[in-house]
Amino acid sequence: MTTRIEKRFAELKDEGRAALVTFVMSGDPDYETSIAVIKALPKAGADVIELGMPFTDPMADGPSIQAAGVRALKGGQTLKKTLQMVREFRKGEANTPIVLMGYYNPIYIYGVDKFLVDAKEAGVDGLIVVDLPPEEDEELCLPALKAGLNFIRLATPTTDDKRLPAVLNNTSGFVYYVSITGITGSAAPDAAKVSAAVARIKRHTKLPVAVGFGVKNADSARAIAAGADGVVVGSALIDALKKTLDGNGKGGPATVKAVADLVADIASGVKAARKVAAE
Amino acid sequence: MSVQPLNSFRTGPDERGHFGIYGGRFVAETLMPLILDLEKAYNEAKADPNFKKEMDHTLAHYVGRPSPLYFAERLTEKLGGAKIYFKREDLNHTGAHKVNNVTGQIMLAQRMGKKRIIAETGAGMHGVATATLCAKFGLPCIVYMGAVDVERQQPNVLRMKMLGAEVRAVESGSKTLKDAMNEALRDWVTNVTDTFYCIGTVAGPHPYPAMVRDFQCIIGNETREQMQKAEGRLPDSLVACIGGGSNAMGLFHPFLDDRSVDIYGVEAAGHGIPSGQHAASVTGGRPGVLHGNRTYLLMDDDGQIIEAHSISAGLDYPGIGPEHSWLGDMGRIKFLSATDQEAVAAFQLCSQLEGIIPALEPAHALARVFDLAPKMPKDHLMVVNLSGRGDKDLASVQTWLEAHK
Predict the structure, then answer these.
(1) How far apart are the CA of A15 and the nearest CA of chain B, in angstroms?
(2) B123, B126, B128, B133: CA torsion to nearest 10
(3) Domain final residue, candidates B164, B185, B212
(4) What gap in Å lies between CA A197 and CA A195, rounded to an integer?
(5) What number does CATH give the domain A4-278?
(6) Same domain assignment for residues B274 and B293
(7) Which of B16, B44, B332, B336 has the most CB atoms in a 10 Å sphere around its CB?
(8) Do residues B141 and B175 share a domain?
(9) From the candidates A70, A110, A131, A177, which should be mutated to test the interface with B, based on the most B CB atoms within 10 A?
(10) What are the tens digits of pLDDT across the range B114-169?
(11) Residue A182 at interface with chain B, using a CB cutoff of 8 Å
(12) Per-residue confidence band for A275, with pLDDT thresholds at 50, 70 and 90
C-alpha cells in the first residue's frame, strides 16, 4: 500500500527537488481562519502539510508554537475538531498529504484505536508524536502502522549511529531530522553540518529525510533543500500568522494571505535549490 | 507491562521503567540518549561501594542525618488515640527532605562529568537544596520556577540567589510547577552535552522515579530502625503528603511489604475536590501521559492538562509519581486529601502544640492525622513524615488567614 506521503516524495524525487513541508497549528487562532489557511497551503507551494494538534504542555516547542497552541485551545480547538478540519480539507484536496503532529496525551485520552479509525477515515496520512520514542512503540506506532498510517520519527543530533537503527525501525513515510538540539523556532542550523547529518541518516535508510528547525525564509530553505529530501518550516509561518491578528486575537483574509505569501517565498527557495543542484 | 512477583511491592520498575501500566519513557528523541546514559551511570554508581560511602558521609556530615523520629506527646494527648511520631525531615540542612535526593543526583552528576545543573522547583525547597549542593560542589545552577511561585515563595527565591543560583521565572502556562518542569525540559533538550537535569520528585521519565525513590528511601529505612529502638516493633501506620510524592515514597517504600503497616497518602484538595480547584491527581484525576511518564493526571475530556490548585506550592502539580499510581491501584496506598483550610488549621495547631512550624505540605498530612489518630487505640504507632519546615509559608498562611477572617 502506497500512502499519499510516499507517493508525494517519490514524485518530487523524479522532479529532482526537495519537498516543502509546512507546519501550522490547527485551530490557530480559531477554526474558520485555520481551515482557510490550511486550504490555501497547497496552492501556495506546500507539498506536505503538518498540522499541529494543540496541547497544554508542549515540552519540545519554543515560544512561537507554544503561543499558537494556547491561541488554538483558547479558540476551542480539540482533537475532534482537528480531525473534522482534515475531513473538510480532504473534500477539496485529494493529493496533498497531511501529517498530524503533537503530543501523546490527547490521543491517549481520545482512545488509540478510535483515534486511528477516525484519523484514517478523515484523510490523515501520517503521525508525528513528539513524546513517543521507539522505546514506547507499542503505544501508538505499531497500531498506527497496522492501520495504514505512516509513523514519522524524529532523528536528532543526539541520535548517534548506534541508536539510529532503533529510531528508523518502524519509521515510515519520511524521517524528520531535527537539525539542532533545542526547541522549535531556535537559531538556524549550519547547512554543511545538516547535509552531512542527512548523509549519515541515509546510510541507514532508504526513506526520504526532511530537515526542520530554524528554516525562516527562501534563503535558509534553499540552503537546506540542497542537501535534503524535504524542508520543514513551522515557527516562521506561525510568526507570520500572528502578526496579522487584531487586538482581540482574531484573524481574517490578511492572515491567510500572509501565510500563503511566506509559503510561496519559501517554496521558491526550495525550487531554486534543485536548479543549483542540477547545474 | 511489568510482571510483579505477587509477594512483593518493591521490585518495580521493570527494565523499561514501568510500574504496572504506569511510568515509562515518554520523551522527545533528543532526550532519549541522555536518559539511557543516566540510567547506565546510575546503575554503575549504585553498584559502587565508594559512591555509597561518599554519599553516606555527605548525608551524615553535611545534611545532618539521621533525622530524629520524634514522639509528638502533646498532639498525641490532644487527639487521644494513636501514638504519633514525626519523622523530622524539617531538621535536615536546607529544611526539607529534598536534600536527600539532591545529594545523590549532584554526586551522580559529578561522576558523569556534567558541568551545569538545572532544576525545576515549586515551593522552592528542591531549588534551594539544588542550589545548596551546587554551591558545595562548585557547579553552576539554574532553577526554573513558575512566576506565581516566585511571588508566593520569596524567601526561597532569596535563598537560591544567595547560594549563587540563577532563578528563571517561568511565565508560560499556569506559571507554576508543571510549567517550570516544561521549561527545564526545554533547557535540557537545548543543552544536551553538559547539562544534568536534577528532578525533584519521583516523577519524570525512567530512571528518575526509581532513582529519586532510592535516594529518598533513607527516610523509611531510618524510621524502621528508630521505631525498633523506641518501641521494639514496626509502626502500624504511615502518613505523608503527596504532590509528586518523593517524601511519601521515601517513607513508604521500605514498609511496602510489611502488610501490617497501613499506608496513607494525602493529596491537596485545594478548595475541595468537588470545586475542581485542587491538586489531587489520584482522587480527582485519571491516567494519562505527561512529563515523561504515564500516571494519574488532572485533565479535561480532550486530554488537556488542567491547572492544579493548592495553597501549598509544593503540592500544586497536576500529576503524581507513577509508582504511587500503581500502588494506589493495587490498594497498597490509601489516598486521602486535605483542603487548604484543613492544612492551615493543622499548620497552626502543630506550631502551637509542638513548637514545630511545619511546611504547608506536611500540614496536609497532619490534617488527616487529626481524624485518623483519634479512631486508633492508644498502642497504635503512627508515623507522620514532617517533610519540611514552614518558615517559607508564614506569609502565605498570614494572607490566607486575613482573607478568611
Answers:
(1) 32
(2) 180
(3) B212
(4) 5
(5) 3.20.20.70
(6) yes
(7) B336
(8) yes
(9) A131
(10) 999 999 998 899 999 999 999 999 999 999 999 999 988 889 999 999 999 999 99
(11) yes
(12) low
Tell me the residue range of the domain where B167 lies. 18-24+33-59+98-212
Q: How far is CA A266 from CA A41, A230, B276, B390, in A?
A: 12, 12, 46, 57
Question: Taking the domains of chain A in order of start, what are their residue ranges?
Answer: 4-278
- Running DSSP on this structure, what letter comes out for residue B287? E
Q: Are residues B87 and B235 in the same domain?
A: yes
- The DSSP call for residue A174 is -
Residue B2 belongs to some domain of the structure: no
Query: Dihedral angle at the C-alpha atoms of A40, A41, A45, A46, nearest 10 degrees?
Result: -160
Q: Are residues B44 and B84 in the same domain?
A: no
Q: Check A167 against B305: CB less than 8 A apart.
A: no
Inspect the interface and report whether the beta carbons of A62 and B289 lie closer than 8 Å.
no
**Do A48 and A22 meet the contact criterion of CB atoms below 8 Å apart?**
yes
In terms of DSSP bridges, do strands B22-26 and B18-19 run parallel, antiparallel, or are they unpaired? antiparallel
- How much is the pLDDT for B173? 81
The CATH number covering residue B366 comes to: 3.40.50.1100
Nearest chain B residue to A80 by CA: give it: B302
Longest Cα separation, chain A: 51
Please report residues of B whose CB lies closer than 8 A to that of A58.
182
pLDDT digits (tens, 9 = 90+) for B54-108: 999 999 999 999 999 999 999 999 999 999 999 999 999 999 999 999 999 999 9
Q: Which three cell numbers stand for residue B267?
A: 493529596
Our answer to whether residue A50 is catalytic in this structure is: yes
Count of domains observed in chain B: 2
Taking an 8 Å cut-off on Cβ atoms, the answer to whether A107 and B303 are in contact is: yes
User: Which three cell numbers mark B146?
Assistant: 513558575
- Distance (Å, rounded) from C-alpha B56 to C-alpha B43? 17
Q: B4 lies in a domain?
A: no
Are B82 and B200 in the same domain?
A: no
**Cell numbers that stand for B152 in this block:** 508566593
Note the pLDDT tens digit of each residue in B67-82: 999 999 999 999 999 9
Interface subset of B 170-209, CB within 8 angstroms of A: 172-173, 178-179, 182, 185-186, 189-192
Same-domain pairing of B168 and B283: no
For B302, the closest of A106, A153, A178 (CB atoms) is A106
Shared domain check, B387 and B238? yes
